[in-house]
Structures are given as structure tokens and as C-alpha cells.
Amino acid sequence: YCDVGITNDGYAGNLFQTFIDNAYYSPHWKVTVHACKTHTPTSTSCRAPGSTPAIFIMESIMEHVAKSLGKSAEDVRIINLYQEGQVTPYKQPLTYCSISSLWSQLVKSCDYHVRREAVEAFNKANRWKKKGLSVIPLKYGIHWGGNSFSCVVSVFAGDGSVMVTTGGIEMGQGLVTKVVQVASSTLHVDIDLINTRPSNVLTAPNNSTTGGSVGSELCCAAVLSACRQLLEQMEPGRQQLPADATWQQVVVKCFGMGIDLQAKSWVDRSCTNVFNYNSYGVTCTEVILDVLTGEHQIIRTDMLYDCGESINPEVDVGQAEGAFVFGLGYWLSEHFIRDASTGQLLTKNTWEYKPPSAHDIPMDFRVSLLKNAPNPLGILRSKGGRDKRMNGLMDRDRGTDGQTRQTDGLMD
């Protein structure tokens, strides 16, 4: 049951059914979502709408099952992980499923079993401070359907410089960086010759919203198509020059022959399944909690995720770090409080509303990309999935709660 407020403008419950399985095979489950109109203000989708609360529900179930059976949550999770070829509740077979490989690699690289023993020893020796250690897997579907992006690539005859304009919006996710890289690689020109301009409805009309973790890769697809088209247009001029002719020489020759040095591309990708492909990740987080005051600190976080053959690893690692911190605010510190009688927002500035700060991030933060994992279903064998990484710390405090209750004899 979803509280959608007084209107359903920001309702994301329709995404629950496609994300609530998370990374677990659940062929016998039935999920029915009900939207409830209430007296509360309507929420606005920000990042990973629908998927974040859905995955939280699934991880809560995993925790409950583990406690009921007297097992660790990690033991329950690993035996329920999806395997290659298994079918999701929405009838989509999973191809190129890397979740089991990610799990085993991360558990080994972060010394999980050694650290688990150390955490248990610490909790037995300390009554008022407890440590928690959890491993969380994640499957996040990437859907291209209904998204369209255009691109215009122009070459200037004077110096051979290239101007690229796409319909995507750069908002810090590295879209422009990847677009420039793709253009440089496809045209075989120095990256210093590539320039970009912000999206403009005169040069790139009718584009989709930049969101859903697909803006960067679909804009890269549009750039790739436009650059290939441009090379075809320039081929007659290239053929009249020696094989070792420079880019500038080819451009001048084509201009002199009256060849159009501009190309436009329009990308409108369909999706026959619910998702075009899935992006996967696993996170291990260790925290320490003062059970009297609630003060806590993330000691260490290890994250390993599958982004295919990354176009820019530094951008993708940065996105993983940023999304994780985004999730810290969502789960731990950012809370809306309204006056019960008037509905007025009381947490309207940073005195009451607390986004995460420098002291909230993990003291030891390690992010790695899965190696040798090209994605045949993506653009240039890469993967999107910026939104998914904020879901990687769902249960980072639950381990401390369980350890406290176990120490105090409160497990029942």
C-alpha cells in the first residue's frame, strides 16, 4: 500500500512490481500494489523512484527470514540469488547475469568472513557500542523504451574542430565527458578538437527527459550514429588523399569538394522486454553504533558493480560514490516533518533538514568495477545504472540492531 498523498502526480508504485524481486529468484511470489489517497502532500520523484522502497521491502523480508531461521542474512541472500537464465516475476529471462560472480568476488576482496568474526568479537566485548556488517546485492533494470535523443555533429573547415550538440542535459553525471570521448574515438581525432554546447531546442528538439539512467548512453548512441554518418559523407574526400593524411587535411579537401561537414542523428530505442538489460552490484558496509545516543559512523564500504565495459571508469566510480552518499541522506538523515494541523513543512532549511555531509561518508570507501564483463546489449558494450547505486546500503544499520538485541537476550 503506497501513500501517494492528495494526488497521484508523483506516484511510482507501478515500478514496485518490476523491482521488488531485487536480486532474488522468486517464482512463486505475487505482488499487488495499491495506491492510497491520503491527506498528505504529494511526493516528487527524485532518484530511483519506486525501486528504492521496493528493494527495501525485499531486503526487510530477507532479514526477517534470516532471523526466523536463526541464520545470517547473508546466508539467506546468497542461496536465493538469481542465476543465469532464470526468469523474473515479469517473465523476462536474465541473460548475462553476473550477480553471483559479483557476490563471491566482493566477499573475498573485502575479507568479509574475517571481518565478520572481528565484529562478533567486538560486540561481545562491548555493551553500549555495537558494530554491524552486511552484504547487499542489487539488480537494477535499464529501460530504453519511450526515450529519444538527437545529436548534431558539425566540423569546421577552418581548423578541423568538431562541435557536438545532443538532446541530453549534463547535470554532473558525466554525459558530456562520455559524448566527447565517443566522438573522438569514432572520428579518430584528438579529443582537444571536440567541443560541446548545451542542449538547445533549435538544434535538438523533441528530446526525452534526461533520467532513468539512460541519458548518457543514449546520447552516446546518437553521437556514434552521427559520427559514422559523417565519416561516410567524408569518404570521397579521404580517398583522394594519401593514407597518412591528417584530419585537418581531409576536412579541407572535403570542404573544397562541397561535401557537407555536418551530420544529424536521432535515436529512438524500443524495448521488447520490460528492461533492455540489467545492471548488477554488491556492497559490503561496516558501521559502528552508540546504542544510547544513536550516533553512528560508517567505518568502511566496499562496492563492486558491473557497468559492462565502462566508457569512462573514473566517471562511473564517481557516480557510484555520489549515489551511495545520496542514499545516506535518503535512509539516515533527510526527513520531511510537517505540522499535523496545517501541513506546513517544518524541515525547510538545513537547520532542521539534514543532507549528508563530509563526516557522514565512509571513513574507508572502496569502489571497484567488475572486470572483463562487456555488455553485448548496451551502447559500446557499456552499462548505465546511476540510480541503482543509492540502494546499496539498505541494511547497513540492521546488523548493529541485531547484535544489540542478541547481546541483551532480546531476540524473541
* N- and C-termini, Cα separation: 28 Å
Structural class comes to alpha/beta
Most strands sheet? 4 strands, mixed
Q: How many distinct helices?
A: 10
pLDDT averaged over residues? 90
* Element pattern in H and E: EHEHHHHEEEHEHHEEEHEH
What share of the residues lie within helices?
25-40%
Radius of gyration: 25 Å
- Count of beta strands: 10
Unreliable runs: none
Sequence of strands across the biggest β-sheet: 3-8-9-10
- Shape by Cα distribution: globular
Which range does the strand content fall in?
Answer: 15-25%
Features of the shown structure:
412 residues; alpha/beta; four-stranded mixed beta sheet; 10 strands; 19% strand
